[in-house]
Amino acid sequence: MNIKLKIALVVIFVIHLSMAIARKTTDGVEHHRLLRLHTLLITSTAMLIASFYMWKRVTFAITTLFPFSSPVRSRRLRLLCFQDIALALLFLFLFLSHIAMFFFYVLLGPEPNVIAITSLSFIAAYAHILIFLVLVDIIFYFTKLIHNKVTPNSVHTYLVNNRSYHILLAVFLGFMFMFAGLYSTHTDPIVRKTTIPMKNFEGTVGGSNVSIALLSDIHIGPSVGRSRIRKIVDMTNALKPDIIAIAGDLADGLVRDFSGAAEPLCDLKARGGVYFATGNHEYMHGNVTEWFAFLEDCNITILHNQNKHITVNGQKLCVAGADDLFALRAHVPGHGMDLKKALSTCTTDTTNILLAHQPNAAKLVLTDHELSQKVNLILSGHTHGGQMYPFVPIVHIANAFVRGRYYDPKTDTYVYVSAGVNYFGPPIKMFGSCEIIFINMI
């Protein structure tokens, strides 16, 4: 191994080890800042390796299909040859992809910066291209292994002869998925309606249905600005819900940077109130205490392992919210999921609704006999439905529930997981997965 490479590897190891130790010895705002920085360093390190791989593959395809101009041509034509232009564009693409995460720290304001949007969009194309290139290589090398065991006119011979085309096809598909995702996120969110029966509603004198608008994963940040939030608020208010529930992941930054973008949230209106429970991003990307103060100024009720008893349309409700599962690991004093505390005053003769950002928290409730007796409906988000198609299998593996309405017959409890009204980071999402959930409880 080259001595320079060895030194670089040692330096990278020392930096990551130092960051890990620093994270363990801090808490509160200092901890979350170190966490963000360390996440950025980890991402950058992984991307350096991936970019080297991507550069080698794509440059091979470009130089094979578009060789340098003939030396007899003029120097000016040589400098303007297609290969040079293609390699320059590839370098620019990789560079903008690498700096995408820095836009969580710079050029922040009420509306997304055009450079930030471009860079964050490219990182989505980058992820897709990387996956497609790996698939191309897996197929190529697998057929190479079995090539000698089959006829000479095998699939591998075809792949060898057309390898450059398949590499460029992977690049093309990556950008196609990016543009399709951009279209999805630059159109209005879908209002997805569902009806859920509530056993405690039966026989209530003078009672009627109660509606809830569920907003999850708003992700105000470098790619989600004020105009997008205004549209979401207007669409939500137009539904005239009795209750509005914000189930975590409100913002990916500090109040000082995104208060202007978040300001339209102050116009959310519901007779039964607007409620908020934290998600993991409140602890990873911002100062949760400052966001609590901002939301309280907007008359949004914070459910910090708390609940509130209300009566809406003659129905007695207990709306509870628990800190996110990540809160304990975030080292923020006074924060950590406490489901028993969140549901402490909810009783079995009321209809009890729990806001728990991660669906795995819903599983904890359903598998606890005492807690499950106190909950009728759990509202979650977090999964984004996968956000991008390649990640759908991962969210299915990592989460107890992924998207939509679920019913647990053992506890007679419903769970609804929203794919989120927005997206994290890259403004890319699968078709129909930016959604406002409108629940009619009957």
Automatic annotation (TrEMBL):
<feature type="domain" description="Calcineurin-like phosphoesterase">
    <location>
        <begin position="211"/>
        <end position="385"/>
    </location>
</feature>
<keyword id="KW-0472">Membrane</keyword>
<dbReference type="InterPro" id="IPR051158">
    <property type="entry name" value="Metallophosphoesterase_sf"/>
</dbReference>
<protein>
    <submittedName>
        <fullName>Metallophos domain-containing protein</fullName>
    </submittedName>
</protein>
<keyword id="KW-0812">Transmembrane</keyword>
<feature type="transmembrane region" description="Helical">
    <location>
        <begin position="114"/>
        <end position="143"/>
    </location>
</feature>
<dbReference type="InterPro" id="IPR029052">
    <property type="entry name" value="Metallo-depent_PP-like"/>
</dbReference>
<keyword id="KW-0732">Signal</keyword>
<feature type="transmembrane region" description="Helical">
    <location>
        <begin position="38"/>
        <end position="55"/>
    </location>
</feature>
<feature type="transmembrane region" description="Helical">
    <location>
        <begin position="85"/>
        <end position="108"/>
    </location>
</feature>
<dbReference type="InterPro" id="IPR004843">
    <property type="entry name" value="Calcineurin-like_PHP"/>
</dbReference>
<dbReference type="Pfam" id="PF00149">
    <property type="entry name" value="Metallophos"/>
</dbReference>
<keyword id="KW-1133">Transmembrane helix</keyword>
<feature type="signal peptide">
    <location>
        <begin position="1"/>
        <end position="22"/>
    </location>
</feature>
<dbReference type="GO" id="GO:0016787">
    <property type="term" value="F:hydrolase activity"/>
</dbReference>
<feature type="transmembrane region" description="Helical">
    <location>
        <begin position="164"/>
        <end position="183"/>
    </location>
</feature>
